[in-house]
Design goal:
Helix content: 40-55%
Structural class: alpha/beta
Strand content: 15-25%
Largest sheet: 7 strands, mixed
Strand order of the largest sheet: 3-4-5-2-1-7-6
Number of strands: 7
Number of helices: 7
């Protein structure tokens, strides 16, 4: 299992010009969540050009398909094959990367992009889903791990809203 180095995943995606919104546990961590995560979750812009850039980035990352109970599988892809599947669970040289076209509770990239904000991650500019959108997605997903994360995320969101009102 590769070491988890999310900054390197972000750097490669940014270097290839992949338009995507970061969502999930890693994005929540960048907002201040204390919960540990072991993967990066992104929502790519659903255009042929962006999928071509994403395919090039995945090749640079040495991406393989990740499945429970088996070794990572070789992954041959291009823009069309990436666009044809709604969720990819991958492992890379720098850790796990999950790609979801339409996360639970959202309408995908355009929806998430509206409320997103730029963030600098070791020199790479990335687009973070809003904390409210991360909460919305986790609420809709309803998985045990998401339900466990929600109290922390809701408190972060409440703190963020209080801070915004104070300024």
């Amino acid at each position: 299992m590769p070491d988890f180095v999310p900054e390197k995943i972000a750097e490669v995606l940014a270097r290839h010009g992949v338009a995507c919104v970061y969502i999930g546990g890693f994005a929540a961590y960048l907002y201040g969540s204390s919960l540990l995560t072991t993967d990066v979750d992104i929502v790519p812009a659903a255009t042929a050009e962006n999928y071509a850039r994403l395919s090039a980035a995945l090749k640079a990352l040495g991406a393989k398909v990740r499945a429970e109970g088996v070794e990572p599988l070789p992954f041959s892809h291009d823009a069309d094959s990436l666009a044809a599947v709604g969720v990819w669970n991958l492992t890379t040289e720098y850790g796990d990367l999950d790609i979801t076209v339409e996360p639970s509770g959202t309408q995908g990239y355009t929806d998430l992009h509206r409320g997103s904000r730029p963030a600098n991650l070791d020199g790479a500019t990335i687009e973070l889903a809003s904390l409210a959108d991360i909460v919305r997605s986790k609420e809709a997903a309803g998985r045990d791990k998401d339900r466990r994360a929600l109290p922390v995320l809701r408190e972060l969101l409440a703190r963020q809203l209080r801070d915004q009102r104070a300024h």
